[in-house]
Amino acid sequence: MQEIVQARSSLTSANVFLIAFVSACAVGAVLIGSFPLQLSIVTIFLFAGPHNLMEFRYFAARMTVRWGKSRVFYSVGIGGVVVLTAAYLTLYFASGNWLWSLESWQIYAATWNTALIVWVGALFYLRGKQRRRDWSLAFAAAFFLAGLSWIVPQYWSLALVYLHPFVAMWFLERQIRRTRPEWLRAYHLCLLSIPVFLGLMWTMLAGQPNLPQDTNLFWRINQHSGSEILPSISSHLLVATHVFLESIHYFVWLLLIPLVDRRAIPWRLKDVPMFANANGVPRLFAAFLAFSVFVSIALWLGFAVDYTTTRDIYFAFAIGHVLAEFPFLVKML
After folding, report:
1. What digits encode the pLDDT tens for the residues 313-326?
2. pLDDT digits over 131-159, tens only?
3. Extents of the domains making up the chain
4. What is the arithmetic mean of pLDDT over 195-206?
5. In angstroms, rounded to a whole number, what is the distance separating the alpha carbons of residues 151 and 148?
């Protein structure tokens, strides 16, 4: 009898999860489709900093104090994050310098993309070795994708913008498999609903005129969504699509992952090995956590004072958290 009650409870919670997810997506699609520029500004203002804080908190809970057999994997992972972030920031902040020609900038960008792809391929290979499997095909896939990044560099960079939100969804899928397997089928239905909402948005917005670009901020938002790379597609559709996916990305990190993994709840510091383990570094972790909170507050203040400049700075440094996702995601495979 107890097992039947538990099964019914699990089914009910999974159905509630499915209904809440689909309902939130439906409301979000309507609002974002109607006010894409305004919702882009609001969502980044409210959630950009806090979602980075939640990512750091989640990764900290998954980082062991002693790396042991994972030493090479984490060394390559963390080393790649540091080097690629530094190279990206160099490219980003120096690209307007008169010493940079368009051709040299394109070569540097394609080289960075190649390094990123090969690094991710190396992570897959090393993870395969840990699991005593041959994942050397990861290098073949990496070299193929690297070739594409040289052939169509602008489309490759734009693809990363639109694919990044799905990384959070992949994290959530792996986490549900571990801690809430009874929700897995419901979550897969949630994922299937996303292309449905996107299809409805595209159908409704395909004929809409382009969004205004009369301010530097509006131009930045349009450009970030690919309006210059895809001029034949309405910028209204592009911005709405990007904001919709990013909103789900924020929703996953801020609410859904803590919901399915109690170790990701911010105040449960006893679940963070670096803080609670006898061999941990509690002071260093506490300092890092305090710094992360400070950055989130500083972002809110920066957005309030000069939204456009703060947005540019945020998106430049945000590449660090994007890169940090890869080692932890691959480690969960």
Report:
1. 898 888 888 898 99
2. 888 899 999 999 999 988 888 878 888 88
3. 2-331
4. 91
5. 5
